Amino acid sequence: MVDQPGAGVYPEYWEADVVLRDGGTAHLRPISPEDADALQAFHTAQSETSIYMRFFSFKSRLSSKELRRFTEVDHKDRVAFVITIGGEIVGVGRYDRFDDPTEAEVAFNISDVQQGRGIGSILLEHLAAAARENGIRRFTAEVLPENRKMLRVFADAGYELVRKFDDGVVSVEFNIDPTAKSLAVMESREHRAEARSVRDLLAPSSIAVVGASRRWGTVGHQLLEHILEGGFTGAVYAVNPEAFELAGMKSFARIADVPGPVQLAIIAVPYEEVPKVVDECGVAGVKGLVVATAGYADDGERGLRKQRELVRQARSYGMRVIGPESLGIVNTNPEVSLNASMAPSLPRRGGLGLFSQSAAIGVSVYAAASRRGLGLSSFLSAGNRADISGNDVMQFWEDDPDTVAVGLYLESIGNPRKFSRLARRLSRSKPVIVAKSDVTGLRLPPGHVVRTTLAPVAALDAMMRQAGVIAVETIEQLMDVAQIVSSQPLPKGPALAVYSNSAAFGKVVADNAAPHGLVVDRIVTDVDLDAGMSASREGLRRSLRTNLADDSVHAVVAAMVPSRSLTMEAIAGVLAECAAEAGKPVVAAFTGILDTSVQLDGLLSPNVESGPSLPCYSSAGSAVAALAAVVRYAKWLDRDQGMFVEPAGCDREGTREHIERLLSSVPGEQLLRLDDGESAALLSRYGIPVVPSAVFESDDDAVAAAERLGWPVVLKTTDPALRHRLDLGGVRLDIEDADSLRRNIAQMRRALEPYGSSAIEVQAMVSVGQACTFRAIEDPLLGPVVSFGLAGDAVNLLDDWAHRVPPLSSTDLHDFIRAPRASLKLFGYEGLPAVDVAALEDLGARLVRLKDEHPEIALVEFNPVLAGTRGAKILAAEVWIGNAAQRTDSARRAMLG
């Protein structure tokens, strides 16, 4: 929380950097009393028309009383946000609560010179989010009819508007709870803005290399040389105060001396000089930075502070940052032809987009792609990823016509919830391959606010599978898969034809395919490669065409031992030709070749300009594993993704009010565990019933409770370690009358004596079934995470959980319940009847929606849930609530930093 002197207190996350419609950045924050002079300057710079539109009259200056009123707010009943660029206010948005505490009036004022950049829409999003946190549910605004821009901001926001015209003024009213339409509008705006910001970095009209050097081998020298030799189509400027001429061109002492506008600055100056250069770039109107300078990660806490300051500086001027410690960027589109990287030459043009964190790994990623001759569309090394992230680049790649597949090496995921949303959308049109380090997603890169995760590592892996991501473990595996998806059609199924001129080799390949989920339809070993060049090629071609034309064959793995008559290049040429004709994927493995990709470089690698290509591997195992990963992706892509599930009977607004009432007496970060009655009442608002129970003190109380609940009943200890343990005396079943109940109470108390005293409860007996468990948590990084498993040893000893990140589609829910290994017991096991799986899916859908819509719910656990042949009953529910942490992907646009 931030305590503002002379005003109120507001959450720290209300302050944020934002991306504008044109890709530039700005800073949004609550207004403060110290803004009085800046607000007056903003007002006096406005045109008469703009002032009239805002105040319905012209006033050349704001009075002292007005300045106090506008800048001194309590951040509850009266909230105001300003957006600044370069420290100057360029937009103001505010709300004032009415007598009805659920309604507020909203007003905006946007700088004349900044209009059209989406500032009003961003202010509305943040005001609406703040208002909802303060219990406001409805906004009203009075707008002059001629103020079409402001009316359009409201109309385009995705809310359901009610308009009234009275006395020459348009009154607009709308509910500010997020709707599917308003969230879709925000997502679309975010996508366009972030894609534009990355596009401007990768396709600049002009570049200045700040720190360009004559000295061979220095970063500045190589960057300038590579840009020039790569044939960059825009203007290039060298900036170095100690050189008059560099690379045959005039050198400028400062970026301010450059005669033309500079869109992108490449910074390669010493560590201590970076802040000064960033300020100079901002003043000069530079739009983006690539910071190659190293030292931040090696300078401990001081380096982290300097990195955060670097990003703050850049964003305050509207600039985005790649790096620091970036290897650079590449764009092979001939209209750009940009090699602003440490790579010695512009790579071959192709359809693969690559992103990497850390300079060291960036070198490995680039080298691996180059070694295999993979054609690239673009490459971005984020270095320490202080600003531009994989999420930003995915936004760009989604619209980029040059990119057909993407690969990312990630050491961390700063915003996994947003990553899941973007990756799922991108994967529907382009394969997304992610290689992750051992700590991916569970930490943040240098310079970011440290957060921890509560969810198991498996939840992140499940999120990737759910999003259609092809997850791999190493850079080499990433390239193995990239070779296929960037050059071959997707397989229509898992059936293979294995080709080999060695029966033993073909059998080994076939045996290796089965564990990967591939089905070997046929093994073709009658391939004679010693019949002479012409005859061998024709025989191979004829056989391939026949088998590829068969609908029962979806792909071919060719594992060949080249002969003197037919070389590796000749074999590969036939394979590539037949694959292109059939429109089915073909991959090759050549035994005895230590480094197949190098020997094939320039001949068979994916290249949009060189016709058919063929993925080649030195190991048949690598070829099979890569093809299997692509088959799984194709299956995910081909299946019906289903609709996002919204079960009937869910009272979102009533639940919100219920939680607010419960939390009204809970201070700060404290969590509140609800008692059984409150838990049941809260869950019932989402159509989730809990079988009632009653804790008792005396035998007479137990009998009275049993009469009320209905016979037969169950006795259970409230001890969390024993309440599910029938074998240890913690549960007694099927008690049919008062006498039997009294006897069982006495016996249970004796049985539990060795474990210490604990309360006992009585509960209505339900039909027998399979015991299951559901759990949902609010994770600081992933947001809501739901888990499902079969209760008992499966989850307690074997960790046999399924995890998912909401929202879930009907297909996701179907897979969720079937994901645990022990889920076979749900469908009839050892003669037992199958359970009502549809009831489990419905319960899962309701829990998912409850958790997704209410981050204040910190934990929900149902254990056990008895799934019978008809229905599923919750026997025990645990619910914890607390003041919600801000999710990393919420109903307000903000940049991570």
UniProtKB/TrEMBL annotation:
Residues 680-892 form the ATP-grasp domain. It holds the Pfam family ATP-grasp_5. SMART domains: CoA_binding (SM00881). One of its GO terms (molecular function) is acyltransferase activity. PROSITE patterns: ATP_GRASP, GNAT. It comes from Arthrobacter ramosus. It comes from the Bacteria. Residues 26-177 form the N-acetyltransferase domain. Keywords: Acyltransferase, ATP-binding, Nucleotide-binding, Transferase. This is GNAT family N-acetyltransferase. PANTHER family: COA BINDING DOMAIN CONTAINING PROTEIN, PEPTIDYL-LYSINE N-ACETYLTRANSFERASE PATZ. Its EC number is 2.3.1.-.
